[in-house]
Amino acid sequence: MRAAIISDVHSNLAALETVLSIIEAEQVDELWCLGDLVGYGADPERCVEILMDRCDVTLAGNHDLVVAGAIDMSVFTHDAGTAARWTAKVLSETAMEQLKTLLPFGERNEVELYHASIRDPIWEYVVDPGTAAACLALQTHNLALIGHSHVPLVYAMAQGEMLLAGYAEEGTLEMVEGTRYLINPGSVGQPRDGDPRAAYLVLDFDRRTATWRRIGYDIAAAQQAIIEAGLPRSLATRLSDGR
Ligand code: ZN
Fold first, then answer.
1. Best exposed site among 90, 102, 115, 200 by fewest CB in 10 Å?
2. Domains in the chain and their CATH numbers?
């Protein structure tokens, strides 16, 4: 069984379509999404439609919960708030109802799934070894997947000792039996690691491997859509910066 994992699409249709076309060519068995379907980008309706149709499991991210009205808009300031208000206005009732069905945590094939973290599936950023160690200690399965930080990361722990902690380069990791892993695939629609290419992950359950992949997409098209929608210009420029 192989599963492709995507996260933090953030209404970036150009990035989503490119990633899905590559994933399709890889003929994986399942597609999982760790949340933040919407927010920041200019194509929320199409992104929700595609993701709800194609994914075998989809989580809600903090942006999805705010747009769906489960969390008050006032938690977001500046660009995130502007984009969330715009998204709530332009989304169809069908898409809004679909967002409302999503939860920020889940489980599939004995893998724990959280948008943000096991301790706080909506808001906690896991970007340092201390936070990761606290989360790994709470896992009931050997593998947990998280999104939210928009950075590809891997943390691994065995017998209380941290074996891997930090940035995940493109490539394949062989997962050792008895070791706990906490993995972030990175973001499809708004990478923040300085590499503007879309990020995703492929898990091979038979070979016990995790593979981080990056793929270039039409960033100019995503930027143009943001500007034409009247969203803050900084949301367009950050896409080519990868920040
Ligand atoms: Zn996000």
1. 90
2. 2-241 (3.60.21.10)
